[in-house]
Amino acid sequence: MEKLYEGKAKVLYREGPDTLRVYFKDEATAFNAQKRGVIPGKGAVNNKVSAALFRYLEAHGVKTHFLEEVSDREMRVRRVEILPLEVILRFKAAGSFARRYGLKEGTPLKMPLLEFSLKNDALGDPLICENAVLALGLTTEGELEGVKAATLRVGELLKAFFAERGLELVDFKLEFGKVGGEILLADEISPDTMRLWDEKGEPLDKDRFRKDLGGVEEAYREVLRRVLG
Ligand SMILES: Nc1ncnc2c1ncn2[C@@H]1O[C@H](COP(=O)(O)OP(=O)(O)O)[C@@H](O)[C@H]1O
Ligand SMILES: [Mg+2]
Known about the structure:
D-amino Acid Aminotransferase, Chain A, domain 1, alpha+beta, single chain, Phosphorylase Kinase, domain 1, binds adenosine-5'-diphosphate, 34% strand, binds magnesium ion
């Protein structure tokens, strides 16, 4: 298969005319790739967690790019034109949001907060407001409303899914893409792209790698165990 793109966490191959094979790597990056490492087993965990969550979301009416798992580390998806936006939904302050506003991580928010950043590694994925998204023509108004509604729905669904498994969903990042006039949820949903805290408030996600907390592989495996369990 022709390799189309190698990113920080995945490799994309052309499979059919409208489909891609996504290969999930063990390589990990943080802080706009200033920190690099390997988390053994991460690729398989992220593939399986993403597949399970895409299936769950589809079963609840969310349109996604997911077609099927093809191996431990690979899934088949519909090829889309990715919107150059990272769509973030936050339930509590953490990470860059906590730093930006000088908040302690874990500070509750009065409502789920939806934020956008421009998907541009060279610029460090800067925060972008809705008016700038529209003024720059990154999406139409209709597309933006669709993306926002889908993200809030995904937030409700994932929050409930993880709560049933003893995990608190603190925040997550989504990417959407267009194909044939439709907007689909794309990319991945994994411990690389969410913050998940266990019953003791311990992170079971990429923050263990970002902050050198140790037990990174174990945390990823535990998320997979709970997602499948
Ligand atoms: N269904 C899809 N069609 C086309 N591109 C996709 C699809 N799903 C994800 N992508 C893109 O695949 C790329 C590879 O993933 P990743 O390694 O995470 O890259 P990056 O380093 O850009 O974050 C991302 O840029 C993502 O936007
Ligand atoms: Mg990525």
